[in-house]
């Protein structure tokens, strides 16, 4: 009875009445919860157990970017030719299998940074294909006019999971150790795959009879080049990915070695960061309605730049250190969500249905191309000059990029639904 009352209070056009979206929402929430555990457990495994340097953490970040520039382009052709739902299910299962190498390696004694590099490559390979297919699946489920709303809800779900994830990670790491805690992420990918597989969706596969894979890859790259909005986004997003991936690779190292924070304190600052992502989800929708999707994206980049700079502010004692670091992650995550929600919606809004898969993978290829060498270079610079100068440099570069984005991006296409 209560369920019926609550359901009847939901507007008829709400996404919460869409069974397919609800299952995708739940799948995304569960996989985000598992990923939040891994985001703490994997770096701690590298830093505390394997004694990784900043350069090695940069290499790990590079391994996680490589799939997008090696298999990404042909993956786009595959996505446009195949069922997006089936690809999303398959690669959720493959991600789960890849993650199990960490606890198995720990238990059998062969865990090393090399194994973490392989795991990073495998899991990112599944994101390059299955994750791209899932992005297209969102468009097919909700339609273009509701993309910002859908992406805001999915982002909020991810942030809620990331609020709970650090606390869960801290408990698991204390109980079984960081390597075994990664098993939670593997289980979450399996459940997510099953949920997506249960979605009822009639997909129309566009025929590409007679077209070669290379010809279709070329079509995807030309689409990005010839569409002013997509072309303008490439430079902005390339710098964003380089900086944000470097930050995510190094912030745990800085927290453990320079700020002398415990695993519990690192879990706390991760939770504060996730709360920032949660705050950024409704902010993304509000900013898009109030100022337009393009301007909301630019504001997100500027806000994230402030997070980089706040992360290295000196504090008098450990309590304020943890609080300031958590505030920095809060600001960074809020800016990231504001940027990501509007970026994902904007690029899908300007792309024809039959090109969605190739657009996603072509954009990923073009924007991630500088990433692997860039993250290694930033990691090496942090080893040579220190982590604090590295974070300051990243913050200033991100601030400069927000100013460039305000000039580069076309002013037409103000809303995702146009």
List keywords for this structure.
18 helices, mainly alpha, single chain, Growth Hormone, Chain: A, disordered C terminus, 418 residues, globular
Largest sheet: none
N- to C-terminal distance = 40 Å
Query: Which radius of gyration do the C-alpha atoms yield?
Result: 21 Å
CATH topology: Growth Hormone, Chain: A
Number of domains: 1
Low-confidence stretches: 413-418
Helix residue percentage? over 70%
Tell me the strand percentage band. under 5%
The total beta strand count reads 0
Per CATH, the class reads Mainly Alpha
Q: What does the overall shape look like? A: globular
What's the number of helices? 18
- Return the string of H and E elements: HHHHHHHHHHHHHHHHHH
> What is the CATH homologous superfamily assignment?
MFS general substrate transporter like domains
CATH architectural name: Up-down Bundle
- What would you call the structural class? mainly alpha
């Amino acid at each position: 009875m209560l369920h019926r009352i609550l359901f009847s209070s939901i507007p008829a056009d709400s996404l919460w009445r869409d069974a397919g979206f609800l299952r995708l929402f739940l799948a995304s929430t569960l996989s985000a919860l598992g990923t939040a555990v891994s985001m703490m457990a994997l770096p701690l495994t590298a830093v505390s157990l394997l004694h990784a340097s900043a350069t090695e953490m940069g290499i790990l970040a590079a391994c996680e970017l490589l799939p997008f520039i090696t298999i990404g382009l042909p993956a786009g052709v595959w996505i446009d030719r195949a069922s997006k739902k089936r690809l999303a299910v398959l690669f959720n299962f493959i991600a789960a299998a890849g993650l199990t190498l960490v606890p198995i390696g720990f238990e059998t004694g062969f865990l090393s940074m090399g194994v973490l590099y392989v795991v990073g490559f495998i899991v990112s390979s599944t994101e390059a294909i299955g994750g791209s297919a899932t992005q297209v699946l969102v468009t097919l489920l909700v339609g273009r006019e509701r993309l910002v709303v859908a992406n805001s809800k999915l982002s909020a779900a991810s942030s809620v999971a990331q609020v709970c994830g650090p606390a869960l990670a801290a408990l698991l790491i204390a109980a079984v150790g960081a390597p075994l805690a990664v098993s939670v992420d593997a289980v979450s990918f399996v459940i997510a795959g099953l949920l997506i597989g249960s979605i009822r969706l009639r997909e129309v596969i566009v025929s590409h009879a007679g077209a070669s894979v290379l010809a279709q890859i070329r079509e995807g790259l030309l689409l990005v080049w010839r569409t002013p909005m997509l072309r303008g986004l490439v430079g902005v997003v390339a710098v964003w990915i380089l900086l944000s991936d470097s930050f995510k690779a190094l912030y745990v190292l800085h927290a453990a070695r320079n700020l002398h924070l415990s695993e519990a304190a690192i879990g706390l600052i991760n939770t504060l960061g996730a709360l920032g992502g949660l705050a950024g989800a409704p902010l993304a929708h509000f900013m898009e309605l109030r100022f337009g999707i393009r301007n909301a994206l630019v504001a997100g980049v500027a806000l994230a730049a402030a997070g980089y700079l706040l992360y290295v502010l000196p504090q008098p004692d450990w309590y304020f250190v943890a609080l300031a670091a958590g505030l920095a992650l809060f600001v960074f995550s809020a800016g990231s969500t504001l940027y990501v929600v509007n970026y994902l919606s904007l690029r899908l809004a300007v792309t024809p249905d039959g090109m969605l898969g190739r657009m996603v993978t072509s954009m990923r290829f073009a924007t991630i191309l500088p990433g692997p060498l860039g993250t290694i270079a930033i990691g090496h610079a942090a080893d040579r000059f220190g982590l604090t100068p590295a974070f300051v440099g990243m913050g200033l570069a991100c601030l400069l990029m927000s100013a460039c984005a305000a000039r580069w991006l076309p002013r037409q296409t103000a809303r995702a639904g146009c």
